[in-house]
Amino acid sequence: xxxxxQTPKHLITATGQRVTLRCSPRSGDLSVYWYxxxxxxxxxxxxxxxxxxxxxxxxxxxxxxxxxxxxLHSELNLSSLELGDSALYFCASSVALASQNSYxxxxxxxxxxxxxx
Amino acid sequence: xxxxxxxxxGMFVQEKEAVTLDCTYDTSDPSYGLFWYKQPSSGEMIxxxxxxxxxxxxxxxxxxxxxxxxxxxxxxxxxxxSQLGDSAMYFCAMREGSKRRAAGNKxxxxxxxxxxxxx
Lengths: 117, 119
Fold this sequence. Notes:
The complex is a heterodimer. Chain A is mainly beta. Chain A is built from no helices and eleven strands. In chain A, strands 2, 4, 5, 6, 9, 10 and 11 form a seven-stranded mixed sheet that branches. The relative contact order of chain A is 0.33. In chain B, 0% of the residues lie in helices and 49% in strands. In chain B, the strands form three sheets. In chain B, strands 2, 5, 6, 10, 11 and 12 form a six-stranded mixed sheet that branches. The radius of gyration of chain B is 14 Å and the shape is globular. The A-B interface holds A 2, 31, 33, 35, 42-45, 48, 50, 55-58, 88, 90, 92, 94, 97-111, 113 and B 31, 33, 35, 37, 43-47, 50, 52-55, 91, 93, 95, 97, 101-112.
């Protein structure tokens, strides 16, 4: 158990709908990351938050948005869902920001498997 | 260009034997970190080992060791004495240490190597 929790574990919805994925980082971790794992795109970084502020953006679609709340939990909102959005969505957390040559391991949650029908 | 390349999509290994998983990377940043993660069929991502670009010695963690060849930009994972529970997908990932704030601390993953340990 990494200490990172994600809910729900599974989500099945229809095209055009909107869903919210929730992540609680490990106690004390300030950084939260979202990744998408799909068969055709592999594991891709979506977005990072650090202590409530957006830190970095990756290949995140405009239909997707995220935020990190004062209690450090994070939510990933996916809207106007398409079949291609079906994937395993991971949240990861780390203590802080990696400085030069620092370890700063990212701990992954169990993921939310999203199926869009 | 691919930043992380894992050329072996899948491989078999006999139980109790060692196996080497290849990973090459591409970066112009002098500061970076290399990670290996294991993903069993249950789906979770399990951290295995880390190598920093300035580390003088190859990283080791139990049965896992990293063969880090900086000049060749390779960071191969060696699993010794394979066990049935080692059957999984293995991902190599890199975190670049760019000073640009927008770079963040994202991990860039390779395509993975599926390992099946035979009894």
